[in-house]
């Protein structure tokens, strides 16, 4: 990477802070490039170099991506790739890869393939033997998770919920037992109704509405699902991009003696005493030593 302050832009250059740099050549392959979700300063140097050096940049909306490339003085060639033209454009992009070109894939914001059709291109490119190169960076999902203050040991990203109440509630019921935080995308006009439906199906769980992350009017509001539904049914601001984070279900009560014995008998039927005790202890949250002692007693009773 070399820097200059006086020579004109070339096809593989970019500028930072008034200084122009030459991007290093990019190896052939499909480069999956994360772009800012709001604050342009969140882009990585590697992402800028990749966009500058790629033969073409496949993007959802060229108007959105053009603002980004112009901000950094890139002479990137933009081609559209979105859900409405994917079937037509995918073979053309694969042909470029077959010709040894470097193709960069971006979404309007954040990490590509998260709630967009990019995975089909990756799947096809991998099947054809082309290199798939992730260029990690901003993600609305990860930004919301770390800002929400809710458990992050496990989480399930479910994209957008169905538009209609019946479908939304059915989807919430299907996800109710997931042993981790739930993460959704949502739109402002549907936010209050969505929160009310989630409260009806998931109960009084803690949640966070994360709106306009990394932007000037960033907001992270915590509360129970019911409290948040009430808040956003009023005149609260709902414009912008929204991510919902919902806490995991509460701890289940420990099994009673009869249930524990039933679990152990089923486990002992196909496993050693040690493995059965370990499996039941992990499933119930009980101390392994106590479960092992009960398994030992059951085995002796059956002798």
List the keywords.
5-stranded mixed beta sheet; disordered N terminus; 40% helix; 5-stranded parallel beta sheet; alpha/beta; 11 helices; 20% strand; globular; 303 residues
**Reading side by side through the largest sheet, how are the strands ordered?**
6-5-7-4-8
Q: Span from first to last CA?
A: 76 Å
Structural class: alpha/beta
For the secondary structure, the number of strands is 13
Biggest sheet details: 5 strands, parallel
Work out the helix count: 11
Quaternary class:
single chain
Order of helices and strands: EEEEHEHEHEHEHEHEHEEHEHHH
**How much strand content do the residues show?**
15-25%
What would the average pLDDT be, to the nearest integer?
91
- Shape from CA axes? globular
Radius of gyration computed on alpha carbons: 25 Å
Q: Residue ranges: pLDDT <50 for 5 or more in a row?
A: 3-10
Helix content: 25-40%
Structural description of this entry:
The protein has 303 residues and is an alpha/beta fold. 40% of the residues lie in helices and 20% in strands. A five-stranded parallel β-sheet has the order 6-5-7-4-8, with helices on both faces. Strands 9-10-13-11-12 form a five-stranded mixed β-sheet, sandwiched between helices. A three-stranded antiparallel β-sheet has the order 1-3-2, covered by helices on one side. A hairpin with a 2-residue loop joins strand 2 (13-16) and strand 3 (19-22). Helix 6 (165-175) crosses helix 7 (191-202), helix 7 packs antiparallel against helix 8 (225-233) and helix 9 packs across helix 11. The longest helix has 14 residues, at 288-301. Mean pLDDT is 91; it is low at 3-10.
């Amino acid at each position: 990477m070399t820097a200059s302050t006086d020579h004109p832009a070339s096809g593989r250059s970019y500028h930072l802070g008034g200084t122009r740099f030459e991007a290093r050549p990019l190896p052939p392959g499909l480069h999956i490039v994360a772009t800012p979700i709001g604050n342009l300063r969140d882009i990585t140097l590697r992402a800028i170099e990749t966009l500058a050096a790629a033969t073409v940049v496949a993007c959802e909306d060229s108007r959105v991506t053009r603002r980004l490339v112009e901000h950094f003085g890139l002479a990137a060639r933009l081609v559209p790739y979105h859900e409405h033209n994917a079937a037509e454009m995918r073979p053309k992009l694969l042909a470029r890869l077959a010709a040894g070109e470097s193709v960069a894939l971006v979404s309007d914001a954040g990490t590509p393939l998260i709630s967009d059709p990019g995975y089909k291109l990756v799947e096809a490119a991998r099947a054809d033997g082309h290199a798939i190169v992730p260029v990690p960076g901003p993600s609305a999902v990860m930004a919301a998770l770390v800002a929400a203050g809710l458990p992050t040991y496990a989480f399930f990203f479910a994209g957008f919920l169905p538009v209609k109440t019946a479908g939304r509630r059915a989807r919430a019921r299907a996800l109710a037992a997931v042993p981790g935080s739930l993460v959704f995308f949502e739109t402002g006009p549907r936010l209050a109704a969505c929160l009310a439906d989630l409260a009806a199906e998931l109960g009084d769980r803690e949640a966070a509405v994360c709106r306009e992350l990394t932007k000037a009017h960033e907001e992270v509001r915590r509360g129970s699902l019911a409290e948040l539904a009430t808040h956003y049914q009023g005149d609260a601001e709902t414009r912008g991009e929204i991510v919902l984070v919902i806490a995991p279900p509460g701890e289940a009560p420990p099994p009673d003696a009869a249930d524990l014995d039933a679990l152990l008998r089923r486990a002992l039927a196909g496993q050693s005493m040690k493995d059965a005790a370990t499996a039941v202890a992990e499933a119930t949250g009980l101390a392994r030593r106590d479960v092992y002692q009960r398994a030992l007693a059951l085995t002796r009773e059956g002798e």
